[in-house]
């Protein structure tokens, strides 16, 4: 099992798909990495040599922010907005949708399960 950026990537999948298991790498970046290193897209992770895995690991370390660093950076950005008390920060703080979605109905993912209100029926 190959370990890249602190993540065990699945061995039986194609390299492009397996790289997407790393937080911060999607299909586009995975295709870019394999193209840059000259690895055929249809190859499986189990067929890679140790040298190729090492090349992938070095490329990701050099060029991309992934996993823990990316999560920390995102959390710090949200914390900064909350500390500024700007509109987006207040929405994060209250646990409501941040990007202008309606909340009268819907928004259940952010607001949580609907709570019944006593005496509301009429």
TrEMBL record:
Q: Name one GO molecular function term.
A: tRNA binding
The reply on keyword RNA-binding is: yes
Question: Does the record carry tRNA-binding as a key word?
Answer: yes
Tell me which domain of life the UniProt entry assigns to the organism this sequence originates from.
Answer: Bacteria
Alphabetized UniProt keyword annotations: Ribonucleoprotein, Ribosomal protein, RNA-binding, rRNA-binding, tRNA-binding
**A GO biological process this protein is involved in?**
translation
InterPro entries per the UniProt record, alphabetical: Rbsml_uS13_C (IPR027437), Ribosomal_uS13 (IPR001892), Ribosomal_uS13-like_H2TH (IPR010979), Ribosomal_uS13_bac-type (IPR019980), Ribosomal_uS13_CS (IPR018269)
> From the record, what ranges are coiled-coil?
none
Extract the ranges annotated as region (Disordered). Answer: 95-122
CC per GO annotation? cytosol; small ribosomal subunit
| Pfam families reported in the protein's UniProt record | Ribosomal_S13
Similarity remark: Belongs to the universal ribosomal protein uS13 family.
How is this protein organized at the quaternary level? Part of the 30S ribosomal subunit. Forms a loose heterodimer with protein S19. Forms two bridges to the 50S subunit in the 70S ribosome.
Q: What does this protein do?
A: Located at the top of the head of the 30S subunit, it contacts several helices of the 16S rRNA. In the 70S ribosome it contacts the 23S rRNA (bridge B1a) and protein L5 of the 50S subunit (bridge B1b), connecting the 2 subunits; these bridges are implicated in subunit movement. Contacts the tRNAs in the A and P-sites.
Checking NCBIfam families in the record gives:
uS13_bact
Protein name listed in UniProt = Small ribosomal subunit protein uS13
| Originating species | uncultured Sphingomonadaceae bacterium
Q: Show the taxonomic lineage.
A: Bacteria, Pseudomonadati, Pseudomonadota, Alphaproteobacteria, Sphingomonadales
| Gene that this sequence comes from | rpsM
């Amino acid at each position: 099992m190959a370990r890249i950026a602190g993540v065990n990537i699945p061995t039986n999948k194609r390299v492009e798909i397996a790289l997407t298991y790393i937080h911060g790498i999607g299909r586009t970046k995975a295709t870019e990495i394999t193209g840059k290193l000259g690895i055929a897209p249809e190859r499986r992770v189990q067929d890679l040599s140790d040298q190729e895995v090492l090349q992938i690991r070095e490329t990701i370390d050099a060029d991309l922010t992934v996993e823990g660093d990316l999560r920390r950076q995102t959390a710090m950005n949200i914390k900064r907005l909350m500390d500024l008390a700007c509109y987006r920060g207040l929405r994060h703080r209250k646990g409501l949708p941040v990007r202008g979605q309606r909340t009268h109905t819907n928004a259940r993912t952010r607001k949580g399960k609907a709570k019944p209100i006593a005496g509301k029926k009429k």
